[in-house]
Amino acid sequence: MYLETTEMRIGDIDLGERPVLLAPMEDVTDASFRILCREWGASMVYTEFVPSDGLIRDAAKAIAKMHTFPEEAPVGIQIYGHIPESMVEAAKMADHAAEIAGGHGCELIDINFGCPVNKIAGRGAGSGMMREPDKMVAITRAVVEAVGKPVTVKTRLGWDEGSKIIVELAERLQDCGIQALTIHGRTRQQMYRGEADWTLIGKVKENPRMHIPIIGNGDITTPQKAKEYFDRYGVDGIMVGRASFGHPWIFRDIRHYLDTGELLPEMGVRERVQLARRHFELSLQYKGAPRGIYEMRRHLSCYFKGLDDFRETRMRLVTSTDPEEILSILSEIELRWGETD
Predict the structure, then answer these.
(1) pLDDT tier at 127 (50, 70, 90 boundaries)?
(2) Cα dist from 38 to 84, 85, 229, whole Å
(3) Whole-model pTM above 0.85?
(4) Is the peptide bond before 74 cis (omega within 30 degrees of 0)?
(5) Which of 216, 261, 272, 290: CA 20 to 30 A from 138?
(6) 50-51 and 45-46: which strand pairing?
(7) Active-site residue 115, yes or no?
(8) Residue 279 domain-assigned?
(9) CA atoms of 167 and 183, how far apart (whole Å)
């Protein structure tokens, strides 16, 4: 068990002791959600996946994903792709995101070697790169050499059960000059099935040759589990993904437990309604309708988990396309279920 803690730094970015980061997730970690998670205690946040080929084609949607706001900082822009030249050009654009996309820009550039979905991994990007570790290393080295900001990598244990290469791969990536490594405790073939295996994450951290911060990812769903995994595996940081859906206050809860050993009381319905309402309004502000409505549905379906007799209301909440109706439903939830707080 690891008990010693030190401040985690990525380049000049000081994230403090035992930081808890928001994982980059497509159609999830847009500006509205990133801002909320930072407000509720996330040590650092990341953009949605930015495709390198889209950036070099000057695609408006890809460029828009690099637009960030000062209140998000520190924020990382995550890029993905499988063509070395495109990845280098995309990294250069991310390095100058404030000029290209407007807004704040970023503190670091993260390379996505972890996404398992078919449309990304199936064409050799994301965790598809686990089948070509030499190419992964070459891309990483080229990106590091091309930009001025810190470069980090997010990846998995390996392609499948028979090729868990992360311990050796971590050394090679470090030798390319990356300044932190995030490891999701599953293989690509597992997708998100089964329990994340953190034992190899711990072995990477134990390796005496490793000197960059190691961030663990996978199945961090409660404050207790976050503390247990910090203590058991000695990671420098922890990244929270799916457990944050409609639950941005999970970062506050984890931080409080890590610092005090005390669990905060469950957030009441009224507070959740207020937070969901603000999240929805931010989503409309940044993305407009209908996109801002569609991309909020994942969160709205999670904000009120556990409420009794909620199925019919939930269906109305996640199928409506009228902003005023959605706000009205949120008010109904506050009136009906808020009385139980």
Answers:
(1) very high
(2) 32, 33, 22
(3) yes
(4) yes
(5) 216
(6) unpaired
(7) yes
(8) yes
(9) 10
Give the position of tokens 């404050």: 223
In whole angstroms, how large is the CA radius of gyration of the chain?
20
**Burial (0-12, 13-18, 19+ Cβ within 10 Å), 74:** buried
Question: Does the bond joining 51 to the residue before it have cis omega, within 30 degrees of 0?
Answer: no
Q: Are residues 90 and 198 in the same domain?
A: yes
> pLDDT digits over 183-220, tens only?
999 999 999 999 999 999 999 999 999 999 999 999 99
CB atoms within 10 A of CB 116: 21
Q: Would you say residue 5 lies in a domain?
A: no
- Identify residue 305 by its one-letter amino acid code: K
Instruction: Name 108's bridge partners.
Output: 76
Whether 171 and 200 have beta carbons less than 8 Å apart is answered as no
CA distances from 314 to 116, 274, 275, 306, 323 (A): 29, 16, 16, 11, 15
Q: Tell me, yes or no, whether 12 lies in a domain.
A: no
Q: What is the CATH number of the domain that holds 129?
A: 3.20.20.70
Q: Which of 37, 106, 115, 176 is flagged as catalytic?
A: 115
